[in-house]
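Just wondering, does anyone understand these tokens?
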Amino acid sequence: MQFTPARRWLAALGVAGATLLASPAAAAPATPKLDVTVADVTLADQAAGSQYATIYASSATVLPSRKLTFDTAGLAGVATATFPSYAHCATQGTVTTCEDSQPTSVEQWGLSLFEITFKADAAAKAGASGALKVTLAVPGFDTVTSTSKVTVGEAVDLVAGERQTVSAAPGGRFTVPMTVRNAGRVTANGAVLQLMGDHALVPTERYSNCWYRDGGYFPACVFTTPLEPGRTYALSEPLGYQVLADTAAPSQAAVEADWLTPAEYADQVAAFKKRGFEPGSPGTGKELTLVAQPVAKLAAPPQADSDKSNNWTTIEVTVTGDNKPDAAAVGANLTGATGATVTAKVGAKNVGKGGIDASRAGSPAVAIRFTVPEGTTAVTVPRECFPASGDTVDWQHPGKVGAAEYHCDSPSARLGAGETVLFDLGLRIDRVVANAAGKVLVSRIGNGPANDGNPGNDSAPVTVNASGAANSGGNLPVTGATIGLYAAGGAALLALGGAGVVVARRRRARFVA
């Protein structure tokens, strides 16, 4: 499947719309509630379309095994559904069953399992629709069922403009024009422009026909103007952006623009609303329009794009200047008697001038490796930490106690200048070892180490009963109140599928500024 920016846009909305991280005192229900979805899809005549089968849980849990059942009887005469070989499915009549006996971890933002490909029947007319029934059965959990709507649309082909490159310094502004061409044979009855940019790039306008959320990020602009075959349309004015003042520099950022038909956008909004989120609210400024002669609106069937590979384009932004982030390891000095449990608050602090931003890639802002000090055992471990050894990470057992080493991912894709992420690990002192030493190592910053301002502070010791230690605490001063951050995971992307592309392991941790 081609992973288009539309899926990344929904991922970003999912991040923004997700529930605020629970406080440490919040108690999860004994048995989480499960849900299973396959998002609605509109097909372009004989072109194929796809969506992911996705499982959600009301709180993080482990499924001992699972059985998914897909009933395609409701698609008769409309479309066929094909399942990938790696899903281990068996079909009998109109029912396909996909089973997995292995335990699977599921977070609140969901887990996409595999992609289902739909293709319209040769005799199906534009406007025809059917339903796919999906049932999930897991031992120890209530069985759940959902329905996905599959619609046959009239084929159109929206083509985005060419890739563009611009430069701007932190705090600076830039504008970019946008165009779209109808390369199909029929009139496109309107269009929707979805925009997704790095956190560093903030839209400067709030147009009345664009829907925004979370400070104006990730707008979707709806145009009702018909697009005639063979014609190119331009936005009534270039789009404006401002680069945040704390953006790392020099660095690269980008805005991705994706053109959809109104029916395709409606499918995405429906998937978003199924998860309890709204697509935002309209701006209060002027209307953004497509420059074209007005055409009388005619009754028409729903449409879908026959070639999504040319719908989108990218504006690459070179951020100039010297504004590097610097992720410094935060260690700890701990004291305690034999048998006592002490808490190591370890992590990383951005002591640089620039923020760390991995939001476009959907990656954690930072990752650390924590080596447990000699003579101690990790008895409480947060779910964002995984047992590790060398280059191997045990992703299947988040929060597992007793390991000698842990890999911990920050729960957010962004760590601003001056902000700290801490992971609380409880260490039981099995025997007192003078100056027992562990270590915290910043193992990853964003998508790589290129912008780390000072690699020399990437590690810090974690000592237990160190000579002269008076009390516990980190090596770097950590001040300020705890702030709530959003759980990242792309809930709406998972509603549409594509979790395997962008699901970063972002979980609960403490952030201080």
User: Anything to note?
Assistant: The chain has three domains: 31-153, 157-319, 327-484. Residues 282 and 375 are 58 Å apart (CA to CA). The longest strand covers residues 144-156. Residues 5-17 form the longest helix (13 residues).
